[in-house]
Amino acid sequence: MNIYQDIQNAVFSNKRLLAVLIDPDKMRAEQVEPFIKKVNATKANYIFVGGSEVEEQATERIVSEIKKFAQLPILIFPGDVTQITNKANALLFLSLISGRNSDYLIGKHVEAVKKLKNSKLEVIPTGYILIENGKQTSVEKVSHTKPMSRDNIQEIADTAKAGELLGMRMIYLEAGSGALHPV
Q1: Where residue 2 falls among pLDDT bands split at 50, 70, 90?
Q2: Cα 42 to chain centroid, rounded
Q3: Which residue in 76, 82, 52 sits closest to 64, CA to CA?
Q4: Which residue from 163, 8, 20 is spatially nearest to 96, judged by alpha carbons?
Q5: 48 found inside a domain
Q6: What is the CA 152 to chain-centroid distance, rounded?
Q7: How confident is the model over 69-91, as a mean pLDDT?
Q8: What is the overall mean pLDDT for the chain?
Q9: 90 pairs with which residues across the strands?
């Protein structure tokens, strides 16, 4: 299964896709089965798993549990190298291109190489752009970066284009959990 190619095909066919996001810190193992059964009954195409502040091993545990019931591919978008698990189908390899903290531009990626070298995960280089939403998010706190102004569309577009020129295959725009103004 080539998830990136499936996404590209959908884009070229003007087909909409839907991903359901699960934060490993906000879901307990006993909640997974009933939740995933509901997800399987929807028009969702993917399950995304990730979060900014996730305890070590939580992602692996929750992805293992999700796999027991899911009929959809699981993509992780880790906020830290400790959230990478080979139990998922793919990894959105996020680079926080809207920020200027070198750890989240490249540093964490270098740390991840040891885990990814022999992995069978489909790795999808993804530019991550944080958009201001009216309140501070956990991404801001963890990454020590400021979001881009939601009113400066040109700067957001230029940042996305720069990510594309750097080889990012996808761009992920986010306002953060509990955003007052979602993207």
Answers
A1: very high
A2: 20
A3: 76
A4: 163
A5: yes
A6: 23
A7: 96
A8: 95
A9: 75, 122
End-to-end, the C-alpha distance of the chain in Å comes to 29
* CATH classification at residue 85: 3.20.20.390
Q: Model-level pTM? A: 0.93
How many separate domains does the chain show?
1
- Any domain includes 183: no
Segment 97-131, tens digit of pLDDT: 999 999 999 999 999 999 999 999 999 999 999 99
CA 150 from centroid of its chain's CA atoms: 20
In a domain, 179, yes or no: no
Q: Whole domain around residue 49: which residue ranges?
A: 3-174
Does the residue 22 lie in any domain? yes
Distances (CA, A) of 80 to 50, 84, 106, 159, 175: 9, 8, 12, 22, 18
Which residue carries 């190619």 as its tokens? 5
